[in-house]
Amino acid sequence: MTPTPSCLRSPRAGWISFANDTPPYREIEMTDPNRKRILDKVDASKDEAVRFLQKMVTIPSVTGDEAAIQAFLHGYLNTIGLDVDIWDTDWEELKKHPGYRPVARGYEGRPNIVANAKGSGGGRSLLLNGHTDVIPVGNGEGWSDNPWSAKIENGRIYGRGSCDMKSGVASHILAVQYLKELGIDLKGDVLINIVIDEEVSGHGTLDTVIRGYSADAGISGETSDLHVQPACIGRIWFEIEIQGKPAGIQQRYLGVSGIMLGQKIVAAVQEMEDERVATVKHPLYPSAIDSLPCIIGSFQAGNYPSAFPATALLKGSIGTVPGEDHEGVKQSLVKKIAEAAAKDPWMKDHPLWCVSSATMPRPPRSRVTMPSCKPFPATIRKSPARSRPSADARVLPIPASSTAMVIPPR
Q1: List of domains in the chain
Q2: Cα–Cα distances in Å, from 153 out to 228, 256, 360?
Q3: Which sign does the torsion angle of CA 188, 194, 199, 205 carry?
Q4: Catalytic: which of 66, 189, 197, 198?
Q5: I need a surface site. Which of 193, 235, 370, 378 has the fewest CB within 10 A?
């Protein structure tokens, strides 16, 4: 059992404190007469809840293949008596929204779901948001068991999506189910929003907004180390295109390798992360190393095993904390890359190209000059909230104009 962090005590302790007690967050007394009934129901239903989550985990749902898990949950939500709306995203209509980001495939047969537990009236509404798509499992590398086994070992469920974030979705559904079974009526509506494509784009939640759903508040059940997160870190995506000097493989010593050049840029980006981790602080994110990744996540070079690799394309991202100046962070990246390139005998005379990420239509490329650099705001895209608070956590407060926070399941 994971120990309960000091910032999120059990409801049985009588109170819950948000975000390490950092102002303006406060302790909230839990004195409702139904509190004990609810907590007793949760405790008594533990085995049932575990089995429900295990069933979800055993259904493979890599992004693009969410049909089976959504069909299962659609049926389950109907059986507990909720009003269920299930629909496929209109890809062409979605493209018209300013929050759209280009993706490689459409959404036919990959539905989103909103299940409504209607209130009696006069109360405020709450939307519980979660995704069922998961990242690929590869060919089994790194797995000691079937990634879809949902095996329980030492009190933990193992399987792709058990943490990110089928447990969150299960907690949303079961919370509403238990309230209904206890006969506890709410004044406001509770909407359970179960979406697809979060790992790639966040379009499931965006399309929920386009469909007209909104609420007075939203909760995402994403992973957050059992910390309530009333804010989201940001994300800046970038690509760096490197052009070395082509050469035939027999005279490769006359060329300049894009791989070798790229390694120097990777090292520079790592230096930038080290600097940011040491200097950037935020009270909601005390662990800077977790909150401020600055990495090259993709390194593509060359095009044939026996051809000299003269080119390289590096793709990466930078995490930012709430309130940071994104333009300033972008310029820090440009400066760091420029300084590294200026030290290389080839790159100092052959400017790099900084291009947009795949999250938006590619604009004209912008040159990074050496040793001083021109800004390239059109070529690095700010994307608020993508790390631990999910892509959906940014969609809720921005296009939907709903107050939202991340609250993980226990």
Answers
A1: 11-231+387-406 (3.40.630.10), 234-384 (3.30.70.360)
A2: 27, 51, 43
A3: negative
A4: 198
A5: 378
Which H helix or E strand runs over 78?
helix 67-79
What is the Cα–Cα distance from 176 to 216, expressed in whole angstroms? 17
Q: Mind giving me the DSSP string for 142-159?
A: T-SS-TT--EEETTEEES
Whether 133 is catalytic is yes
Determine which helix (DSSP H) or strand (DSSP E) holds 207, and give its type and residue range: helix 203-210
Tokens of 327: 């333009």
- Cα separations (Å) of 43 from 14, 36, 153, 225, 233? 16, 10, 20, 21, 33
The tokens for 373 are 């650099």
Active-site choice (66, 133, 324, 392): 133
- Our CA dihedral for 112, 117, 120, 122, rounded to 10 degrees, sits at -50
Indicate if 197 belongs to the active site: no
Q: Which structure tokens are listed for 302?
A: 């060359």
Residue 369 has φ and ψ, to the nearest 5°, of -85, 155
pTM: 0.72
Map tokens 């892509």 to a residue.
391
